[in-house]
Every structure is written in structure tokens, then in C-alpha cells.
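Figure 6 in text form: structure in, sequence out.
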């Protein structure tokens, strides 16, 4: 097993309330595998990713849980050892490259820093490796573009630079936090294809985070559906689309626009009623669920193993 997250809790403390951003998350990831983590905004996907990197921002705190990477619990590693691991063995592509890249340094200086910090290369060696990496991610005229500042590049080019920085060290695990959200459909497809090709070339695993099931379906072998800080269903990608078990997963699938409905004037997309709100007891999705029972509002649902690779938290199957 490459990565194993179990019973992870991450809470944010405010003056008069506690926000339970991640509330008992569990999942695992095999070497060379791609797992898609999907759910609506605010469900805890990005905080889960930042927990793996040990970069949870204040006032957030990892309350409890275990995150094993190559059989080491990274939550127990000393800070210096974690710094060596972060960016070397585990890399992350952040959601917005414009805020993730430093605007006062050229993209070359920022990629070179990765090589110099993790491998101790000279400035000349780091620059040569950086140009090679920019070419690998499909940036034309890399010798000239390496001197450009982030604001001088398009959104798609900036995202390619982020991928180049993340993959410069040939990590075993890449965490991609909604890397295609701000891109148009054509560039989105190019970035996904690039990530798939580099994954095969570098033999790495990917944790791909998105709110878009159609995007995740193109890249992930398995999908974990997240709601209100918990994984509510997990299965192989084909199984999720063919046989969704949790009402929330069903709602996400029904909300996907379909080409056959484009010219139907009366057709409306099905939306999930209500909004995600914290509750003290029972299933977090119960207030929005059309299939809820009385027990759903009183007790947390049990974990049901539907098949060898399909799990769901729901009272409907007990």
C-alpha cells in the first residue's frame, strides 16, 4: 500500500463554534493507481489533501487519525523529515496556479529552486533540468519561456508550470487539487491527457480531487464520494456510474448535463435540494435526502460492504 488514511479528523476552531471539516475520513491508494475524490465545495476535499501534506492552515488542527505513506505515519514524523518528504516523495498541484506561483520570480527560478533544494544541483544544472521539464509538459519555446513571469502566461500554461514543478522530483504520489477547474474544455482535456501520460512515464499514483464526476471519470480507476467531511461511498469508477448506492452519489450523477437534453426546451437539470449544513446527530445528508428514514436523523449509518471493492455509508442497505 502506498497511502493509507484512516479515521482522520480535522477541525477548525473559531470563537464560538467548531467546524468539523474532515470527520472520520478513510481511504487507501495503491502504487501507480489514480483515486478520484469528489464532492461539492466545502465538503473537505482540499483539507484532506492538505492534511496529507501536513499543511493544514490555522486555525485548523488535525485532531486524530493516521496517514501512512510507505508504512510510515507521516503525522508522527519530525518536521525536518516531513520537509524532505514533502515535494520529494509527495507533490501537490494547487487549485489556482496564479496564487500558487510567486508573481515576483520567473517560472524558471521557481522550478530551479525545487532541483537545488531536493537534489543540491548547481544553478546551471537546475536550469537545464527545468528546461527539460518544461518541454516535457508541453510548453513551447521552453528556453525563452523559462524567463517569463507567471502573469505573462495563459491559465493553461501556468497550470503546466505547476505540473512541471510538482513532477520535477519524480514523486511517488501526486495530489492534484482541482487542477482543471479554471480552464476551458479544450485546455482541460490537454491537461488531463498530459497527466495521464506523465503518470505512466513516471510510475506514480495520483489523488485527483474534483467536484466534477465527468472529469474524474476520465482519469481515475476508483472514486471516493465525499460529503460533509466523510467518505459516503467508494468503488471502482465504472461501478460508481453503473450502480451508485448512496443517494448523494445518485444526485451528483443526475446533475450531470447530457448532450441529448441540450435542445429540449423543457428539460431542466436535476438539483440536490437544500445545502450542506452541520448536524449533531445522524447522517449529514439526511436533511437533503429524498429517501431518508426516521433512523437517518438519529444515528450515524453503518459501513456496508456491497462487494469486494464497493463500500457505502447508508441506512438503506441495512
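Output sequence:
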Amino acid at each position: 500500500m502506498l497511502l493509507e488514511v484512516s479515521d482522520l479528523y480535522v477541525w477548525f476552531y473559531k470563537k464560538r463554534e467548531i467546524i468539523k471539516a474532515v470527520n472520520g475520513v478513510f481511504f487507501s491508494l495503491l502504487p501507480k493507481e489514480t483515486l478520484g475524490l469528489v464532492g461539492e465545495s466545502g465538503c473537505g476535499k482540499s483539507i484532506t489533501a492538505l492534511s496529507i501534506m501536513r499543511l493544514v492552515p490555522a486555525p485548523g488542527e488535525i485532531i486524530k487519525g493516521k496517514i501512512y505513506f510507505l508504512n510510515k505515519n507521516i503525522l508522527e514524523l519530525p518536521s525536518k523529515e516531513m520537509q524532505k518528504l514533502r515535494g520529494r516523495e509527495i507533490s501537490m498541484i494547487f487549485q489556482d496556479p496564479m496564487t500558487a506561483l510567486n508573481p515576483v520570480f520567473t517560472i524558471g527560478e521557481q522550478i530551479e529552486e525545487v532541483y537545488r533544494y531536493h537534489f543540491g544541483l548547481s544553478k546551471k544544472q537546475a536550469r537545464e533540468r527545468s528546461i527539460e521539464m518544461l518541454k516535457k509538459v508541453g510548453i513551447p519555446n521552453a528556453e525563452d519561456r523559462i524567463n517569463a513571469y507567471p502573469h505573462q502566461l495563459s491559465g493553461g500554461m501556468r497550470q503546466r508550470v505547476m505540473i512541471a514543478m510538482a513532477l520535477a522530483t519524480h514523486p511517488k504520489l501526486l495530489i492534484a487539487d482541482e487542477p482543471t477547474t479554471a480552464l476551458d474544455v479544450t485546455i482541460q482535456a490537454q491537461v488531463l491527457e498530459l497527466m495521464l501520460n506523465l503518470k505512466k512515464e513516471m510510475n506514480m499514483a495520483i489523488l485527483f480531487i474534483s467536484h466534477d464526476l465527468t472529469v474524474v471519470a476520465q482519469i481515475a480507476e476508483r472514486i471516493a464520494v465525499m460529503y460533509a467531511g466523510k467518505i459516503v461511498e467508494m468503488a471502482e469508477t465504472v461501478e460508481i456510474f453503473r450502480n451508485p448506492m448512496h443517494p448523494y452519489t445518485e444526485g451528483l450523477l443526475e446533475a450531470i448535463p447530457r448532450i441529448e437534453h441540450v435542445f429540449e426546451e423543457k428539460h431542466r437539470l436535476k438539483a440536490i435540494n437544500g445545502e450542506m449544513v452541520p448536524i449533531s446527530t445522524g447522517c449529514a445528508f439526511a436533511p437533503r435526502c429524498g429517501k431518508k428514514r426516521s433512523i437517518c436523523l438519529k444515528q450515524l449509518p453503518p459501513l456496508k460492504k456491497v462487494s469486494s471493492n464497493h463500500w457505502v455509508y447508508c441506512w438503506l442497505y441495512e
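Caption detail: The chain has one domain: 3-89+169-317.
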